[in-house]
Amino acid sequence: MNRSQFLKLNAIAGLGITLFPSLSFASEIQKFSRSQLIGKGNPDIVGDSYTSKMHKDAKAAFLKMKAAAAKDGITIEVVSAYRNFQRQKEIFEGKYQRFTNQGLAPLDAIKKIIEYSTIPGTSRHHWGTDIDIIDGGVSPRPKSVLQPELFHGKGPFCKLKEWLNSNANSFGFFEVYTDNANRRGFKYEPWHFSYAPVSKPMLQAYKKLDVQQILLKEKIKGAEHFTPEFIAQYRNENILDINPKLL
Fold it and tell me: What global pTM score does this model have?
């Protein structure tokens, strides 16, 4: 290939990206494997504990946000970060077993679980981009820290919430399950934030997966009740009905 041909091809490629940015975005989506998207292995995860494991880019941004908050007297503490498939499966199946043992019908048990907990293989925590955070400087520490009322009014974490409302977005973090009265799916979680520069393209890639087939293949307890209608509703409400800035 001579120089003029090379320059011509580069010009055409550049024009394609300019006129059709989705083409370049599509190539970005391709880099995420099925295993990464469902929490079964991600080479980009760094950290050595349940509360420190995150996607490397999310971790770098989080540390900057944590340092900025510290200057304002806020101690951001992560109580949950990356969660792999197996851990989410243990959480889901433990609740499923408990609720059905209490007499709930299987589908009713599943509906109760997904008020707050995700079905394994569908959790945003599988991506390493999402974190549950509190103010670690609060004393005495509430026995159960992930309660919405603790983040508002005179709650112990209200200063943290106010700080996040003003500053989190500038570091790339956005609240996922907002208190929008018209939002469906998971209930309001003022502690759950997502690193948008990575989670947005991961969500676009995830949308291409056949969720029902994944859940059936993984033999999750109760999976026989994941009908196409149930999965369609779960996808629309629990996976996609989130903060629009994360879509």
Answer: 0.85
Helix (H, G, I), strand (E, B) or coil at 243: coil
Six-digit token string for 99? 């609720």
Tell me what pLDDT residue 31 has. 84
Asked if 158 and 70 count as a contact pair (C-beta separation under 8 A), the reply is: no
Lookup: tokens for 200: 């947005």
Q: Indicate the number of domains in the chain.
A: 1
- Expressed as residue numbers, the domain containing 58 is 31-246
Q: The domain that contains 178 carries what CATH number?
A: 3.30.1380.10
Contact present, 62 and 195 (Cβ < 8 Å): yes
The residues that bridge with 66 in the sheet, in sequence order, are none
Spans of the chain below 70 pLDDT: 1-30
Cis peptide before 43 (omega within 30 of 0): no
From its phi and psi, is residue 153 left (phi > 0), alpha (psi between -120 and 50) or beta?
left
Largest CA distance in the chain: 75
Q: What is the pLDDT of residue 47?
A: 96
Domain membership flag for residue 14: no
- 24 belongs to a structural domain: no
Q: What is the pLDDT of residue 209?
A: 94
Tokens of 231: 């999965």
Short-list 31, 45, 55, CA closest to 129: 55
Considering the domain boundaries, does residue 15 fall inside one? no
